[in-house]
Specification:
By secondary structure, the chain is α+β, with helices and mostly antiparallel strands. It has helices spanning 2-15, 39-56, 74-84, 148-151; strands spanning 23-28, 61-65, 101-106, 109-115, 124-129, 132-137, 140-145, 154-161, 164-170.
Length: 175
C-alpha cells in the first residue's frame, strides 16, 4: 500500500512540474537480525525492496534500517543523517534529473510530453480551453498555460510511452 501511495505521489508531483530525485525506503530489517521470528518479514521485505527498485527506476534509492529505538531527538537525527548521507555527502545535491514537461517539435509537428510515472492512459482526462490544457487524473487537476507554439493548435491525439503522456497538436482544421 505504501509503495502504491508513493508511486501516486511521484506521478502527481510530476503533474505539477515537481521533479523527484531520490527515493528513501525506511524501516528495512537489518541483516544482523537473525532471529527466525523475523525471517518471513525479511523475505517479504526483500520482495518489496525489489518492487521499489523496479517501480522507481531510474531514480536512486537509499535505504534506512529499522532502528531499535524511535527516531526522537538530535542524536537520532544525526544517526539518520549519517545513514542517508555518509562521509559528509551533500544532502542538497540533485541525485537525478528528470524533465517533467517538454515541448517537442519534429518537422512541422508539435507535441507536449508530461512525465507521469505509473499512470495509465485510461486514468487521464484531457481538455483544452483557450490557451490552457487541462489534465485531470482522479481528483488531481493541472491547468497548463500552453506556450505560443501550442496555444493556437488543438490536441490531435495522446499516448503513454515510457512514463510520458505524449500529446500531439495540430491545426484545428486538420483535427
Amino acid at each position: 500500500m505504501v509503495i502504491k501511495e508513493s508511486l501516486r505521489a511521484h506521478a502527481y508531483l510530476s503533474l505539477y512540474n515537481v521533479a523527484t530525485d531520490l527515493v528513501v525506503a525506511n524501516r528495512i530489517i537489518p541483516n544482523s537480525v537473525t532471529d527466525p521470528f523475523f525471517q518471513r518479514w525479511k523475505d517479504l521485505q526483500q520482495q518489496y525492496r525489489q518492487e521499489i527498485h523496479d517501480n522507481f527506476s531510474p531514480l536512486p534509492i537509499k535505504e534506512v534500517p529499522l532502528y531499535s529505538e524511535e527516531m526522537c531527538g538530535l542524536q537520532a537525527l544525526d544517526r539518520l543523517k549519517e545513514t542517508l548521507y555518509p562521509n559528509g555527502e551533500d544532502p542538497t545535491q540533485v541525485y537525478y534529473r528528470e524533465t517533467t514537461l517538454r515541448v517537442v517539435q519534429e518537422q512541422q509537428q508539435y507535441s507536449l510530453e508530461v512525465y507521469l510515472p505509473g499512470i495509465e492512459k485510461h486514468q487521464i482526462e484531457l481538455s483544452k480551453t483557450g490557451d490552457e490544457l487541462n489534465i485531470r487524473i482522479g481528483n488531481h487537476r493541472r491547468n497548463l498555460v500552453l506556450p505560443q507554439a501550442l496555444a493556437a493548435l488543438q490536441p490531435a491525439g495522446a499516448k503513454m510511452e515510457e512514463d510520458y503522456l505524449k500529446i500531439r497538436f495540430a491545426d484545428a482544421a486538420k483535427v
